[in-house]
Amino acid sequence: MKDTILSLLPPDYPWADRIVYCPTVGSTNDLAKQLARSGAPQGTAVIAGQQTGGRGRIGRSFHSPSGKGLYASLILRPQCAPGELLHLTCCAGLAAREAVHSLCPVVPDLKWTNDLVLGTKKLGGILTELGLRSDGTVDFAILGVGVNCLHGREDFPPGLEDTAVSLAMVTEAPPSVPQLAAALLTQLSQLSTCLLTQKEALLNRYRAACCTLGREVALVGSDGHVRHAAALDIDGNGALLVRFPDGSEQVVSSGEVSVRGLFGYV
Ligand code: BTN
């Protein structure tokens, strides 16, 4: 698997000597975090054949059956304060979207903040996590990406089969997992060069890709409280600007709320 990924990377890919492949892992994010804490350099990538404890945002799990999906986490070491990385999840979503589009005739939308969707179903997701130094600056960032690639409907557990989709379910010639891994790593390495310098341009690309904008959504707070609002815009940090029925507007961050469509998942 690792040799196949290496053979598919472009010759100028900068981190070919930093790929860690595990047939089975709890969570690639957890292993990447462990490696980062032990000093693994920028560009170290963990890719797994399957995850037994794949994680999503706000304590959700990410179903990660063997050989069916891309499960990857990349370590970056941007030298900045954590507040300068609030757009990181949006940008990792863009990279995953471009990776898919570079290999198949589909372009996933991005559901704010961290889901890749096709039509009304979830194709994958992003889980970014930061490690901080004692002075509060960023030690490392983990960009975790999961994409459903070769799943048939029967590969999703009950409950997910109506809301999840894979590339094999929508295209006759889906990419292989190594192809998707190489395309993703290529996109993420390019992103790493402009993450801090081209924030507004990246967020403009995110706005164009974000299917949440212009919709009526349900904002679900961490306490389960639900408020309906119109999704208006993405601000300069990747947060969502919404308008409530009383006309008041608020910027909500992904740490505060998750978004649901009023008539389904998107
Ligand atoms: C979500 O659905 O909220 C995000 C899902 C992110 C899944 C990926 S798979 C690779 C990496 N390792 C994890 O445990 N999670 C991310």
Word description of this protein:
It is a single chain. By secondary structure, this protein is an alpha+beta fold. It is 23% helix and 30% strand. The protein contains 5 helices and 12 strands. The protein has helices at 2-8, 28-37, 88-103, 177-194, 199-209, and strands at 19-25, 45-51, 69-76, 109-111, 115-118, 121-132, 138-148, 216-221, 226-234, 240-243, 249-252, 257-261. A 7-stranded mixed β-sheet has the order 1-2-3-7-6-5-4, with helices on both faces. Strands 11-10-9-8-12 form a 5-stranded antiparallel β-sheet. A hairpin with a 5-residue loop joins strand 6 (121-132) and strand 7. Helix 3 (88-103) crosses helix 4 (177-194) and helix 3 packs across helix 5 (199-209). The longest helix is centred in the C-terminal third of the chain and has 18 residues, at 177-194.
Overall, the morphology is globular
Poorly predicted regions are: none
Number of helices: 5
Tally the beta strands.
12
Distance between the termini: 34 Å
**Largest beta-sheet characterization:** 7 strands, mixed
Bound molecules: biotin
Q: What class, by secondary structure content?
A: alpha+beta
The strands making up the biggest β-sheet line up spatially as: 1-2-3-7-6-5-4
Q: What Rg, in angstroms, do the CA atoms define?
A: 18 Å
Range of helix content: 10-25%
The whole-number mean of residue pLDDT values reads 95
Strand content: 25-35%
Succession of helices and strands = HEHEEHEEEEHHEEEEE
